Amino acid sequence: MKRQNQTHLSQNYLLQIIIRILNQYYPWLIISGICYLFFLQSSLLFANHSSSEAMVKTIVREKKISYTKYPKILVFVGDKSNRGKGKLIAVNTKEARIDGAFKALSGVGGKENQPMRGPIPSNGRVNIIHYLVDIKPLTLSNPGIAGKFYKIHPHLISVGAQIRGDFGIHADRNVPGTAGCIGIESEKDWQFFQDLMHSYHHAGLEKVPLIVSYR
Question: What is the pTM of this model?
Fold first, then answer.
């Protein structure tokens, strides 16, 4: 029994060392694991979970972001075949954990180059590493927004020959869907998202990167 206890303690100690090394040198491996577990358990993201691994790779792939400068990032993963529905995930890169996940959508079922109907284009489609989202929101009276609006930069982007833009993150109000913005669907999630952005502001952040990917 004593030998078994010693073996168990040594295994725990070894595990702690491995976690410490990963956290110091390879934090994105931990983040990827967290994201994988999150997507694997979520039945609200997509009916088909086969794209979970690809979504995680999308997050890990964006290695050119300065994580020292941006300790928080937002990731929107959507399904273009299901009216742009998906999840908006807030990732804490410094502590290698997810701060929050929100049921969201973008567009009303159009293509990425289609104004007013298509979702916000993915980063690869417009050849940018990431978007930037203002931490401090605007207050707009538009019927589809009617409240806080977290502006997404750049203001205008080229999707082939088509110019799109004026995107933001807001509550999905009025009729379901957006003109390309990211709309958070439930009021509870929307309140949580605003509280989270408020805490980011108090932590001294002004903008947070946004990665957009679709299955």
Answer: 0.74
